[in-house]
Every structure is written in structure tokens, then in C-alpha cells.
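Researcher: Last one for today. Full complex below.
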Amino acid sequence: MLEKTGIATEQDLAGIMPPKERLAQGPVAVIECFQRIPCNPCYTACKRGAIQEFEDINDRPVIDVDKCNGCGICISNCPGLSIFVIDETYSDTEALVKIPYEFLPLPEEGTFITALDREGKAVCRAKVHKVLNSKAQDKTPVVSLIVPKEFSMVVRCFSIDDFYSDNTIICRCEEITLGQVRELIRKGYRSLDEIKRISRAGMGPCQGRTCRQLIMQEIAAATGVKMGEQRMSTFRPPAKPIKLGALLGGDDHE
Amino acid sequence: MRIEEHPILSFKKGPKVRFTFDGKTYEGYEDEPIAAALHAAGVRTLGHSHKLGRPRGFYCAIGNCSSCLMVVNGEPNVRVCVEKLKDGMVVETQKGKGDLR
Amino acid sequence: MKKTEIVVVGGGPAGLSAAINAASLGAKVTVFDRNSQLGGQLVKQTHMFFGSQKQYASIRGVDIADILTNELMKYKDNIEIHTDSTVIGMYEDGMLTVEQDGKYMKIKPQSVIVTTGASEKFLTFPNNDLPGIYGAGAVQTLMNVYGVAPGDSVLMIGAGNIGLIVSYQLMQAGIKVKAIIDAAPKIGGYLVHASKIRRMGVPIMTSYTVKYAHGTEKLEKVTIWRLDEKWQPMPGTELDIEADVMCISVGLSPLAELLWQIGCDMKFVPELGGHVPVRNEELETSMKGIYVAGDVAGVEEASAAMVEGRLAGLCAAKNLGYTSDQFDALKADYLDQLNALRSGPVGEKIRKGLDQLVG
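Model: Here's the assembly. Have a good evening.
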């Protein structure tokens, strides 16, 4: 219960969720402000008139989802940091969640972080899409995260702690991270060869001796296909890096 | 411990100065409260109460509660949460209610 | 002995607002503040304020302190500011005594606006005097003014707005907050504050209180326990929380010693934090020419303190003959703003309190 724990309940959220059809059209603000308090900067911040004028300063914000274009200006203006922008059109399987974040260090774009829910529990890994931190945000940076679509209404915070070790290097030759491999598996690349060809993991000088097993473990963890049942990649000579000269000096030239 | 970076605030600090606390030398920033400099150096217990000898730290940090009385440059009963640090200050734990020298 | 027309005691949100309005109308104003820097508690607030544009909503407290100080400087011909100066006495003949740099000063104004703010309430539990147990204001001062971390891990007592805000500020300073506990069955502060802390993973435990603080020379551990519906502790529900700092934020009470000294009618109004001065709509107390504004007049949010300050400054100046043709409109606007800020469910307590005060 929100009043006892600070965590919004399903009932609280049911009243403010944008309709499915609207989510399918593009980014939209979600305002998780459930208590009547004297506060109206969201209304003054919105230049599109998408937040209804307050009759009483204690009114809860009411958003016209058809006027809102998800620009996110309201995010950094809300003193309660209770506004998020959701974009379910980011990809077929992923959504963007834009979150106000007033802590240091800020995450770097392109890295992986641990996405948290309204209780601060780890939900999934997420890639940092953008970090907006200009004068317009006035020290309330807005971080957009790429999350699996089913978590777009669950993820509301993140921890810079790499709970899932996503930024761990898995292929040191090509500098591919665990997070990148996991993202590929999520996108449907399910064999060692597929991942190798799309990411170059395993195509460096060591020829996969460091990463091969780790990638197969990740495939197993994500898909349930045991390592012994996965298709091994194709091996071709040379099995170790050699000098071109070694080939020239051979005794079997035809 | 000092806060090195902060998402909202930047801290204006005076020049570094040295002072002693019960004979040991410490560093702090000029014009910050003595209690802040001691706290940054890890000193939490500023003295002991005069009747029961219970450990005392600061409580309010704004000069209200007088929980932080110490002897500064020989003068007893100084509220170190609001007394500004100066170079060469001699800060001592106060025994009892303090003596005027 | 010095003379001035209006003395403002305290340079926080209420005092600065009062001084700005009085000086802008032409009154000679002297401001005393015990700190080195004007702004009072505003300088420690890293969060954006609530309210509407007129009360600087969406601007951080620390920035509002600068805005108000700069606005005040526009009237520097009418303003005298004394920082590091504490008003220590107010006498029935209108004389004020001030301590400044170890020296004693007397000043006799025609009118006084008392904006001394509030002091923090405390709690009773065994070992509550251990070093490491600090008031929320102390924690804010140490970390947000002087940049010193109060400790490694903190247990926050109190889930009102101050407890929630200071918890958030601790996290911004990189300090671990173990939990926020509150004896009440519900979170007292704004739920948006609660939610933004909760989603960082900090548990908020309502119906819990401190049983015992452990430590010999300083705090090491805290035992908390649950309260039943009748607020009685329930044996067997004890939990130990390791923390080197316990931050107490269980409310404020008006810092009204000066008003007592001079003999203002005072009334105990728990909804407003304790004993508060009886005053009229223009914030004049039972003593002629003595005005109040901000937390000393009843504890509420800083946005209300700023509006009260504007109102008290306007009215105190008018009583000395400094007014404008805008007076009625301005006064009505300030009263409207105050009514709006207090009109919702979170203002209910304030309204109940004020109903007992204003004739």
C-alpha cells in the first residue's frame, strides 16, 4: 500500500496507465502522482497544453495523452520526480523508459545497468540509450533505458551497480561485453556461430578460446538448450596465430 | 570523510589549515566549523558528559543543543559545531564543566 | 544604541521575503541572522520545491536562497544585514539585544518581524545521547553546507517530508540509507518523495520505532521494533540494523523564545508544532508592531513561509506609513496563495491548527 511503503499498487497504477492504442503510437508521459499536494509545475512546464489546467493547486495532474508527444520536458520539472516517458515503439520487442536521475555517477550511453522496479528490486538488465543532462534539465538528468517491452511499466529506476555483470568483457580480443552477447541472444541469435558472425566475438587472435564456452553458457542460461546440445561453431585452420612466412616456407607447394 | 562529488552542490572551501586535537595534528579548511573538520577526520566523540561521563558528539550542528562543548585555544565551553576553524587552533576535550585559565 | 524602523530576526525564507517587501516599500530594515550566510535552511535543500511559480516551484531550495538574497540586494539603500549575529533578547520597551562577534549590541526598532524558524524535536530511547545520533538538520548542515559525510550507513527515524528528503540527500552524497522507520502507520511526507526513495531500494517501515541504540563510544547498531494499532511496542518483533548514524527527524517545534520574552500571547497548538503566537490575519501578534512569519508562527512548508514573510513585510511597512496603492491587491493575493497551499488534504492539519489561532 502506497501510504505505508511508498510503493504504488496495481490499483493506483490502473488509473493512470495510457491506453494500449496510445502506447502503440509513440512516446507518452506517465505521471505517477497519486496524492493531492499543493504543486503544479508539470502544468506550467508543458508547452503543448497536454496537462490539464489545475482548478485547485492541490489537483492531481490529468494528462491528455493525445496532446502529449512524449517530449519529456515535464520530467525534470516535477519536484516529486514522478513523471516518466514510455516509448513502446522503440523496437518490436523493446521499449524506452525515460527516468529522472539525480545521482552520481551518471551512467554512460551504450553501457548496461540494472533496471529496478518501484521497490528498488532488480528486474532486468537494460542498456542506456541516452543521458540528457543539459541546462534544460537543470541538474535533473533524464536517462532513457532500453528494456524488454513487458517491463516498460515496471522499470522505474536503475542501479549503476552491474548486478548482472553486463559490462564484463566476455571476448577480450574483440572487446565484446556479456551485455552485448545477452542482447543478441534476446534478439534471436541463438547459436555460437550466429553470435560470432554478428558480433565478431571469437574471431580475434585467440579464435574463441577464451569466450567460446562463456557464450555457450549464456545461450544455455537464456534458452535452456544445454551446452552439449548446442551446435558447435565451425573450426578452420590455422588453430593458432602464425606468421604468413610460415606458410610460404612450407615443403608442400604445388 | 569528505564528499568529493555531488550531483547538485559544489562546496566552497577555504584554504587548508592545520590544528591540533588533544595534541594530535589534523587538517581542515579555514572557517568551516571545528566539528566538521573533526568529523571529516573520523572523530565522532568530542568529549564526555560532566556528571555521568557519557560520550558526547554534536547533535544539532547549528548551535542549539550545546552537546559539542570543547576547549578551544584554552577557552572552555566552546560550541565547536558553530566555531570557525582557524590555522593553528588548539582544540582539546573538555573535562567537567571547564576551567577558566 | 542603534535605531532602525524594522528589524527582521532571521534571514531564512520567511525573513528574506519579509525584508524584501518592507524595504521595497521604503522602510529602513535591519536583518539579523546567526549564520554566516543568508537563506536559513534553504541553503541545505537540494530538491526542487513544490507549490506554484509564485513560490518558486520546481526550483531547488539552495537556488531560491540566492534568488531571494539577490532580490533583497536590489533595495540595499534601505537594508542593513548583520550575519553571524544572534538576537538574544527582546524587551517590552521594544529594545532588542544582539550578540555579534562576542560583542553585545542594542537596537531599538519601531517594529519587529520575528522569523526565527523552528528547532528539531527529539525522541526518548536508551542511549539516545550516543555520538552518531544526529538531528536531521545536523546531517544536512554537515553534508550539504560543509561537504562532510555524516557516516557510512544511516538509519532514518521519521518518514515525514524532512526524513524523506534528507534520506534522498544522503543518497545523493553517496551514503547508504539502511531504512526509514516511522512510528505512525502511514508515511507522513509527500508520497512522491517516498516513492523516489523506495525505488532506489530503501525500505520504508511504518509502525516501527527505536527500542535501543547500541555502542560504547559511538553508535554501532540500532534495535527497532514494531508498534501495534495502539502504538504499543510488540515484543518479539525486534530487528537489528547496523548503522553508524541514526538521523532523527520526528518534527519541528517553533523557536519562539523571543516572543515569550516580550510577552506575546502564546497558545499550544500541536498541529502547528507546539506553542505558537496568537496573531491576526496580517501576522501581527498580541504585541503591537511585533509580527511573525514562517515556522515560528507554526511549522509548515517553506513555500508557505515565503508567502507569510511577504505578507508580514507588507503589513509591518504599512503600519509605519510605507504603503502603495497595490496594498489591498497584494494582501489579498498573499492570503489567496496561503489558502491554496493549505487547501488540500496535506494542509488539513495546518488548517485545523490555524483555526485555533487567528481571531
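Chain B has one domain: 16-92. Chain B has a mean pLDDT of 93.
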